[in-house]
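Format notes (please read before filing issues)

Several people have asked whether sequences and C-alpha coordinates are stored in separate files. They are not. Every record keeps both together, in the order shown below: the sequence lines, then the C-alpha coordinate lines. Line labels are part of the format and must not be stripped during preprocessing.
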Amino acid sequence: MNTLRTVLLLLLATAGGAASAQDGPVTAGPAANSLFLSALALRHGFDPERGLAGDVHGAFGMGFRFNERISAELTGGRTPTRTGLVEADVDTLRLDALWHFDSSAGWQPWVSGGFADQETKAGGAKQREGMVVAGIGLFRRLGGPFLLRAEWRLGYSLDEEAWDHMAGIGLTAAFGGSLPPR
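Then the structure lines:
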Protein backbone atom coordinates (compact mmCIF):
# COMPACT_ATOMS: atom_id res chain seq x y z
CA MET A 1 0.00 0.00 0.00
CA ASN A 2 2.90 2.39 0.69
CA THR A 3 4.11 1.87 -2.89
CA LEU A 4 0.70 2.68 -4.34
CA ARG A 5 0.50 5.82 -2.20
CA THR A 6 3.99 6.90 -3.38
CA VAL A 7 3.06 6.31 -7.02
CA LEU A 8 -0.12 8.36 -6.64
CA LEU A 9 1.72 11.23 -4.95
CA LEU A 10 4.37 11.29 -7.72
CA LEU A 11 1.63 11.21 -10.32
CA LEU A 12 -0.22 14.14 -8.77
CA ALA A 13 2.96 16.20 -8.37
CA THR A 14 3.98 15.64 -12.00
CA ALA A 15 0.46 16.29 -13.28
CA GLY A 16 0.29 19.59 -11.45
CA GLY A 17 3.39 20.81 -13.28
CA ALA A 18 2.14 19.48 -16.62
CA ALA A 19 -1.30 21.05 -16.16
CA SER A 20 0.16 24.48 -15.42
CA ALA A 21 2.23 24.32 -18.63
CA GLN A 22 -0.84 23.62 -20.83
CA ASP A 23 -3.26 26.16 -22.30
CA GLY A 24 -6.87 25.04 -22.56
CA PRO A 25 -8.20 21.50 -22.55
CA VAL A 26 -5.82 18.62 -23.15
CA THR A 27 -6.50 15.38 -25.00
CA ALA A 28 -4.98 12.56 -22.99
CA GLY A 29 -3.79 9.15 -24.10
CA PRO A 30 -2.22 7.96 -27.35
CA ALA A 31 -4.10 8.99 -30.52
CA ALA A 32 -6.11 6.49 -32.58
CA ASN A 33 -4.00 4.55 -35.11
CA SER A 34 -0.77 5.24 -33.22
CA LEU A 35 2.17 3.14 -32.12
CA PHE A 36 3.27 3.79 -28.54
CA LEU A 37 6.41 2.89 -26.58
CA SER A 38 6.55 2.90 -22.79
CA ALA A 39 9.23 2.82 -20.10
CA LEU A 40 7.96 2.10 -16.59
CA ALA A 41 9.22 1.78 -13.03
CA LEU A 42 7.14 -1.02 -11.48
CA ARG A 43 6.86 -2.32 -7.95
CA HIS A 44 6.14 -6.05 -8.20
CA GLY A 45 4.52 -7.46 -5.06
CA PHE A 46 4.34 -11.22 -4.75
CA ASP A 47 1.82 -13.40 -2.93
CA PRO A 48 3.29 -14.06 0.57
CA GLU A 49 3.02 -17.84 0.03
CA ARG A 50 5.58 -17.61 -2.78
CA GLY A 51 8.35 -16.59 -0.39
CA LEU A 52 9.62 -13.94 -2.84
CA ALA A 53 10.53 -10.41 -1.78
CA GLY A 54 8.89 -7.69 -3.89
CA ASP A 55 11.12 -5.15 -5.59
CA VAL A 56 11.13 -2.21 -7.99
CA HIS A 57 12.25 -2.87 -11.55
CA GLY A 58 12.09 -1.43 -15.04
CA ALA A 59 9.74 -2.61 -17.75
CA PHE A 60 9.37 -1.69 -21.40
CA GLY A 61 6.30 -1.95 -23.58
CA MET A 62 5.13 -1.46 -27.13
CA GLY A 63 1.51 -1.07 -28.14
CA PHE A 64 -0.87 0.03 -30.86
CA ARG A 65 -4.05 2.05 -30.42
CA PHE A 66 -6.57 0.77 -32.95
CA ASN A 67 -9.28 3.40 -32.38
CA GLU A 68 -10.49 5.84 -29.71
CA ARG A 69 -11.33 3.02 -27.29
CA ILE A 70 -9.13 -0.04 -27.87
CA SER A 71 -5.38 -0.67 -27.82
CA ALA A 72 -3.12 -3.68 -27.30
CA GLU A 73 0.25 -3.71 -25.54
CA LEU A 74 3.13 -6.14 -25.09
CA THR A 75 5.24 -5.43 -21.98
CA GLY A 76 8.26 -7.19 -20.52
CA GLY A 77 10.46 -6.77 -17.48
CA ARG A 78 12.74 -8.54 -14.99
CA THR A 79 12.31 -8.26 -11.23
CA PRO A 80 15.47 -8.99 -9.23
CA THR A 81 14.40 -10.55 -5.92
CA ARG A 82 15.28 -13.32 -3.52
CA THR A 83 13.72 -16.33 -1.95
CA GLY A 84 15.23 -16.79 1.49
CA LEU A 85 18.99 -16.30 1.01
CA VAL A 86 18.97 -17.23 -2.69
CA GLU A 87 19.00 -14.49 -5.34
CA ALA A 88 16.23 -14.85 -7.92
CA ASP A 89 15.04 -13.19 -11.13
CA VAL A 90 11.42 -13.09 -12.21
CA ASP A 91 10.94 -12.43 -15.94
CA THR A 92 7.46 -11.35 -16.99
CA LEU A 93 6.09 -10.97 -20.52
CA ARG A 94 2.52 -9.64 -20.67
CA LEU A 95 0.01 -9.09 -23.49
CA ASP A 96 -2.91 -6.80 -22.60
CA ALA A 97 -5.92 -5.25 -24.28
CA LEU A 98 -6.74 -1.76 -22.97
CA TRP A 99 -10.16 -0.08 -23.01
CA HIS A 100 -9.82 3.72 -22.91
CA PHE A 101 -12.53 5.92 -21.37
CA ASP A 102 -13.28 9.54 -22.26
CA SER A 103 -10.69 12.12 -21.22
CA SER A 104 -11.58 14.30 -18.27
CA ALA A 105 -9.56 17.39 -17.35
CA GLY A 106 -6.58 16.05 -19.29
CA TRP A 107 -6.64 12.57 -17.73
CA GLN A 108 -7.63 9.45 -19.63
CA PRO A 109 -8.49 6.42 -17.49
CA TRP A 110 -8.29 2.89 -18.85
CA VAL A 111 -8.87 -0.70 -17.79
CA SER A 112 -6.98 -3.70 -19.11
CA GLY A 113 -7.13 -7.45 -19.27
CA GLY A 114 -4.67 -9.96 -20.60
CA PHE A 115 -2.30 -12.83 -20.07
CA ALA A 116 1.28 -13.09 -18.85
CA ASP A 117 4.07 -15.65 -18.94
CA GLN A 118 6.25 -15.47 -15.84
CA GLU A 119 9.50 -17.36 -15.29
CA THR A 120 11.29 -17.49 -11.94
CA LYS A 121 15.00 -18.40 -11.91
CA ALA A 122 16.57 -19.13 -8.52
CA GLY A 123 19.57 -21.24 -7.55
CA GLY A 124 19.87 -22.86 -10.98
CA ALA A 125 16.19 -23.89 -11.08
CA LYS A 126 13.55 -22.44 -13.40
CA GLN A 127 9.80 -22.36 -12.97
CA ARG A 128 7.32 -21.05 -15.57
CA GLU A 129 3.73 -20.09 -14.97
CA GLY A 130 0.82 -18.56 -16.83
CA MET A 131 -1.12 -15.65 -15.38
CA VAL A 132 -4.39 -13.84 -16.01
CA VAL A 133 -3.93 -10.08 -15.49
CA ALA A 134 -6.37 -7.18 -14.97
CA GLY A 135 -5.49 -3.55 -14.40
CA ILE A 136 -6.46 0.09 -14.20
CA GLY A 137 -4.48 3.16 -15.20
CA LEU A 138 -4.32 6.77 -16.31
CA PHE A 139 -2.66 8.67 -19.13
CA ARG A 140 -1.82 12.39 -19.00
CA ARG A 141 -0.48 14.21 -22.08
CA LEU A 142 2.71 16.13 -21.23
CA GLY A 143 3.27 17.77 -24.62
CA GLY A 144 4.35 16.57 -28.03
CA PRO A 145 4.29 12.80 -28.24
CA PHE A 146 4.93 12.28 -24.50
CA LEU A 147 2.47 11.03 -21.91
CA LEU A 148 2.69 10.38 -18.20
CA ARG A 149 1.33 6.99 -17.23
CA ALA A 150 0.33 5.42 -13.92
CA GLU A 151 -1.09 1.92 -13.47
CA TRP A 152 -1.96 -0.83 -11.04
CA ARG A 153 -2.39 -4.47 -12.07
CA LEU A 154 -3.45 -7.65 -10.35
CA GLY A 155 -2.27 -11.02 -11.67
CA TYR A 156 -3.52 -14.49 -10.81
CA SER A 157 -1.12 -17.39 -11.40
CA LEU A 158 -2.98 -20.29 -12.97
CA ASP A 159 -0.19 -22.69 -11.98
CA GLU A 160 0.64 -21.48 -8.47
CA GLU A 161 -2.87 -20.27 -7.53
CA ALA A 162 -1.30 -17.09 -6.15
CA TRP A 163 -2.09 -13.37 -6.49
CA ASP A 164 0.61 -10.84 -7.43
CA HIS A 165 0.23 -7.09 -7.92
CA MET A 166 2.20 -4.44 -9.78
CA ALA A 167 2.06 -0.66 -9.38
CA GLY A 168 3.91 1.54 -11.83
CA ILE A 169 4.60 4.99 -13.17
CA GLY A 170 6.35 5.87 -16.39
CA LEU A 171 6.55 7.70 -19.68
CA THR A 172 4.92 6.79 -22.98
CA ALA A 173 5.77 8.19 -26.41
CA ALA A 174 3.06 7.91 -29.10
CA PHE A 175 3.85 8.07 -32.83
CA GLY A 176 1.44 8.49 -35.75
CA GLY A 177 -2.32 8.80 -35.55
CA SER A 178 -4.11 12.07 -35.10
CA LEU A 179 -5.52 13.89 -32.11
CA PRO A 180 -8.76 15.86 -32.30
CA PRO A 181 -8.23 19.66 -32.40
CA ARG A 182 -7.84 21.41 -29.02
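For reference, the curators noted about this record: The CA atoms of residues 19 and 27 lie 12 Å apart. The chain has one helix and eight strands.
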